[in-house]
Write a structure and sequence with these properties.
single chain; 109 residues; alpha+beta; four-stranded antiparallel β-sheet; elongated
């Protein structure tokens, strides 16, 4: 089933506890149907005129395009990074039951 109405949204943070707090906050607020935490990962990036290397945890949220703006606002408010990674990727295919579950779990109540 094709649908760009659903998104995966990725962010990173510097600890497992912060990743869990971001995940739980978004799911409790029904901004995401679920969130998966992976890590630690090693990130290498440009920052403040240099190249940095850091250990981070990735959080991958499952949500809808309609809920994305609220999820982004939530992440910006709850995140401790000055410029957090927030990247949304359209889901172009998936099982009908799973995609329906995402929609149902993120519906505004």
């Amino acid at each position: 089933m094709a649908s760009a109405e659903r998104l995966t949204v990725q962010t990173t943070t510097d600890s497992a506890d912060r990743a869990a707090a971001l995940a739980r906050g978004a799911v409790e607020a029904r901004l995401a149907a679920c969130a998966q935490i992976a890590g630690p990962v090693t990130s290498v990036y440009h920052w403040a005129g240099g190249i940095e290397t850091a250990q981070e945890w990735q959080v991958l949220f499952k949500t809808t395009a309609a809920r994305y703006p609220a999820l982004e606002r939530h992440l910006l408010a709850a995140h401790d990074y000055e410029t957090p990674e927030i990247i949304a990727t359209p889901v172009v295919a998936g099982s009908a039951a799973y995609l329906s579950w995402i929609t149902a779990e993120t519906a505004e109540r």
